[in-house]
Amino acid sequence: LSSASSATPLPYHLTIRFSNSLPDLDLDVPSPHTTTVASLKNLIRERISSRNRLRFIYQGRLLSDSASLSASIKPPPAPPASPPSKSDEPWGRSKGKGKAVDAPVAPVRIYINCSIGDELTPEELAQEQAAAANPPDESSSAASSHLNGNPSSWTRPRPRGFDRLLQTGFTHSEIETLRTQFASIRTEGFAPDAMPSPDTLRSMEDAWIDSNAGEIPSADASAEDDFNGMSTVLDMMIRGMMVGFFFPLGSLAWLLRSDVWSEKWQVFVGSGVALSLLVGMVMSLT
Fold it and tell me: Looking at the record's lineage, which domain of life comes first (predicted)?
């Protein structure tokens, strides 16, 4: 009985993270070895009532529709169970009677990124539903298992950000759509004159793709974005005050032209000019 129970595949507890503003979707798949990516796609389409093209990304790879979930996705190892505390024992230390009851372990969630593309035609939707009814393709499952078990295939240099998805079957138009959706959400907390640089956006795209590589994301994903925005404003403040402090006369001439610098830059440069004048007055009095 123990060998039979150990051979039974465990269910998958999935969390789908969409590229647009849709909230995360939790799904439990009881039979991942018989459930294909296409059938999962059809199930999610019913949950969110969408006719758009769906593509699943896991650990930087595009999942094949005909492969099974157990072959395409390798769940992260379960966290070690915490030892029971002494307060859990009703009468102090156990006398050796009965069996110890293990504390329940929270299920390990698997995070999958979902890209939402253009709207499908009725013919394409019918083909997707027909593919969802087919059994898993062993050749696709074997290829997916080979990629999962061969990390050296990803050691070669790769493009940054969503350009990495060109190697997995995404088109340029789909990547641009995904990049636009991602940038509109991630840049909401930044000021218009303190937007992240293209290099920062590529790093954020890499982090979004790799966020389901086995680590559970933080509860507040916007904290990192707020920190990046604060560092950008702080860097601008230091530069502006240095310009105003060391070049007060030239800065005053530029401050008279309000169309040259942004509002924040004018405040920081003006603060540097005021500090320079204050230091000059103190030195003249002493």
Answer: Eukaryota
Q: Phi, psi (5° rounding) for residue 4?
A: -70, -40
> Same domain, yes or no, for 16 and 113?
yes
Q: What is the largest CA-CA distance in the chain?
A: 93
Q: In angstroms, what CA-CA distances link 269 with 229, 232, 254?
A: 19, 16, 10
| Domain of residue 174, residue span | 160-190
Q: Which of 141, 172, 190 is the last residue of a domain?
A: 190
Report the DSSP pairing between strands 52-58 and 61-62: antiparallel
pLDDT digits (tens, 9 = 90+) for 175-187: 888 888 888 777 7
What's the pLDDT tens digit per position in 62-120? 888 888 888 888 877 766 665 555 555 554 444 555 555 555 556 678 888 888 888 88
Tokens 């991602």, residue located: 182
Structural domains counted in the chain: 3
Distance CA 43, CA 49 (A): 10
- Domain-embedded: residue 40: yes
Could you give the angle at the alpha carbon of 47 between the alpha carbons of 183 and 24, nearest 5°?
Answer: 40
